[in-house]
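Quick one - inputs below.
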Amino acid sequence: MEPEKVETGPPALIEAAVRLFTPPACREYVLGDLCERYRSPGQYVSDAIRTVPYIIVSRIRRTSSAPLLAFQVASTFLTFAGPTLIPVPSAVAATTAAATMLMIRQAYRADSRQWPKGPAMDAFSAVLGSIVFSLLWQTGTRDAVSLIAALDSGTGAFLLMFAASVLWAPKPIARPGLRRRIVYLAACAVWATVLGVPASMFSGFATGALIANSAAAGSVSAGSALFPDTVVTVVTLAPIAGVIGAMFLCVTRPRLALGAFQHAAR
Amino acid sequence: MKPASIGQFEQSVLAAVLALGDNAYGVTIHARVEELSRPKRVSPGAVYATLDRLEDKGLVTSWLSEPTAERGGRSKRYYRLEVAGEVALHASVIAAKRLCEAVEQLWGADAWSPKKWKPARQH
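Output:
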């Protein structure tokens, strides 16, 4: 008589589902620990539910960069609120959804950098997040229709791809000398132009937003190379981003800008 | 060296890592933290998140071991307390001791016996 097989690990299907939700950076040891604790399928699922959400939040905290997120939020907002003329509350909602998706994707990103698959997937995630959120939002407002139409036209997708592609810019240099800083600045400028020009050809009327994006992308990349300290980067870039945002607002929404100036003057 | 500021849960996790020595990894740290936090249950995820935070603060370091068959051929992530972690734990334990002494003065020796102890207002 053959000895009865003793189950020592979790069922493959459940383990595959847990594996799917666990960020790649922690997968190896978290799945190993869950496997070591395994007593029954129910206990395994309960342990996974009490583990994986914390891991995801912790990864988001560890992988998020304040300057990068600020740039992504600013450029995504300009994408929605600027050229497509979507009301500000809807644009804020869509931007929040897109930024959340980008943060989650960043948490799940493996170490390898693959161009152009990486930014394309970033853009896809952000657009998908915005569309799903817009569909839910649609029950409360008609703005979602115009938002989806804007995304569908390709404008939003290209701009979001551009926003997401900041991650794929030349890597910041550790302790750069003056000569290397100049080379790096030049590389950033070329990078921003190479990406910005074809994107503006496709997106037509969104050229203004792309120019603003290009300038901001170059500033973020250069800022992170010249001032590796995040705080210094934020402090340096905040006024630049403010000026770019104000200029963009004046060009695309002159009435709103005029109103804001009048309000400030009062 | 100025000690880093740590919370109560971080204190438990650091104490567990210190106590476990060379055998400090996810499963053992969680078991020890749960023992220290009794009767409160501790989720494994909270321990991982805290270990990440402590690593970012430079209080612990971690490394992956060789894969083992008992874990489906997967590695363990081991943790070790750094000097800064030990200093932070020491400072927080001193503060906790001062707190214990303060309440003992009010509650007397019964403070440490869960069966005998009663809230001061019921005395």
